[in-house]
Design brief:
The protein has 14 helices and 19 strands. The chain is α/β, with parallel strands linked by helices. Strands 2-1-3-4-5-6 form a six-stranded parallel β-sheet, with helices on both faces.
């Protein structure tokens, strides 16, 4: 592993950027050096890829959607579920012939998977054509790692380098022009027994509020209409800072910035969700009336095994308060089906909670064991086939609830952000403040703008409407 002579200084990293630009003028396959970036997983990974693109842009790279044309290929990986890991291994393996055909192409892997030692070892042994591997804690020294890989011609592996700091000043090349991600903190201290995130993302570190506010203002001034604040648990924002500030106070400060925009955030942990936060949402000028609050299971016994540190009563009290303060609040959540030791009786309590809350939508997953987590060592006697039946039952219940909620919106007027074309002739897709998709006919020149729409039809998960 590369451990020597790494330099955190932004000035030194900028020197490496200049050197890479000179190298790629010679090594490029076409008129300009091209990079292909593929991102797996959560919005935080997307935000990380935008930083990598920012640094590559400064190195003189442009970007391509076709890996066959690229001088540099990077997969930014996700370790949350086994399926995502399997996809990465399959897609990396498919690059072997490309590397043989174009030996100068540099193939790289980064992200959460690379912070797992067994995965990094597998990449090292089984994929010798992968030349650069770095973990989530090495983003700020990416130019130096890239330079070493290009110049030395040796494989560079750098991971497990968590200095518990927040490194600012990294350039960002955002994927969108009106929707953007704004990280406010990194890492997680919760250590839910099923979750790999604290082990691959490190402990919680919050960014200074003044830096966040300036970045938010810059995004708003640049015309961003939909800004999502990111953190593994945004509700614990502020821990470790000299400045005494809560997430609700940060949200209020951003909301006070003048402009025409919508402010979202994710993800919230129920154990830290306060009345102060909900009150701030209720009174906000720009804050979305959408609360994503993962409950994972409706069984107190399973919640304890998961180390979630709240119970169903606590969760429902938050939901009741949110509904009382924000009558049109849109509630979404995450659920794990088939956690080790879960019985059908436990699962029925999850269904009961879903019926009680009536979520707008759910992100549902069958439990996937992660190497290195406590849950992976727990007895798990229920076969996957049985869990799949539970999963289908859950989807049927939620589909019924979603259809009912969407039907109740027919005839209402909604302010939506037009996000793009649907692929159907003349049809656009927009999104409400509550994060519900609306399809409607319209002029593509309205993409990236807020419009009022009358809801004319409801489907199970989306709405149909017309522009007013």
């Amino acid at each position: 592993m590369l451990n020597d002579n790494l330099n955190n200084s932004p000035e030194i990293q900028n020197d490496y950027i200049k050197l890479i630009a000179e190298i790629m003028e010679i090594r490029k396959r076409g008129e300009v050096p091209l990079a292909y970036i593929r991102t797996y997983g959560c919005q935080q990974n997307v935000a990380d890829s935008e930083k990598i693109k920012g640094m590559l842009s400064m190195c003189g790279y442009e970007f391509t959607d076709n890996p066959n044309n690229a001088d540099f290929i990077l997969f930014n990986t996700c370790a949350v579920r086994e399926h995502a890991e399997d996809r990465v291994f399959g897609n990396v393996g498919a690059l072997k012939s490309l590397k043989r055909k174009h030996p100068s192409v540099l193939i790289a892997l980064c992200g959460c998977m690379m912070e797992q030692e067994h995965v990094a070892n597998k990449i090292y042994k089984s994929f010798p054509f992968v030349g650069l591997v770095f973990g989530t804690h090495c983003m700020h020294i990416f130019p130096q790692l890239l330079y070493k890989s290009l110049v030395d011609g040796k494989r560079v592996f750098e991971r497990d380098n968590d200095d518990l700091l927040v490194h600012e000043g990294i350039p960002v090349r955002r994927d969108g022009s009106f929707k953007g991600w704004l990280p406010i903190m990194y890492g997680c201290d919760n250590f839910c027994t099923y979750c790999i995130v604290p082990y691959v993302r490190g402990r919680e570190r919050s960014r200074e509020s003044s830096v966040i506010l300036q970045e938010a203002k810059n995004m708003i001034d640049a015309g961003y209409k939909d800004i999502t604040l990111l953190g593994q648990n945004v509700n614990s924002y502020g821990k470790g800072l000299e400045e005494k500030i809560t997430f609700a106070e940060l949200l209020k400060k951003i909301d006070d910035i003048e402009g025409d925009y919508l402010l979202r955030f994710m993800t919230s942990h129920p154990k830290d969700c306060t009345k102060e936060l909900i009150d701030t949402m209720a009174s906000g000028k720009h804050i979305s009336k959408h609360l994503h609050l993962p409950f994972q299971s409706g069984s107190d016994r399973i919640l304890k095994l998961m180390n979630r540190r709240y119970n169903v009563e606590k969760y429902l009290s938050i939901i009741d308060y949110a509904k009382s303060k924000i009558p049109d609040v849109s509630l979404t959540s995450d659920i794990i089906v088939g956690f080790p030791g879960e019985t059908y009786e436990d699962f029925k309590q999850t269904l009961e909670l879903i019926r009680k809350v009536e979520f707008t939508s759910l992100f549902t997953f069958i439990y996937s064991p992660r190497v290195g987590t406590p849950a992976a060592k727990m007895d798990d006697p229920i076969p996957y086939e049985e869990k799949s039946k539970w999963f289908s039952e859950l989807l049927a219940v939620q589909e019924e609830i979603a259809a009912k909620r969407c039907a109740a919106m027919v005839g209402t007027t909604q302010r939506i952000l037009i996000e793009g074309e649907t692929g159907k002739d003349g049809m656009l897709a927009g999104r409400t403040s509550g994060n519900i998709v609306v399809e409607l006919p319209g002029d593509k020149n309205t993409i990236g703008t807020f419009q009022n729409a009358e809801i004319t039809e409801a489907r199970n998960w989306i709405l149909r409407g017309k522009l007013l």
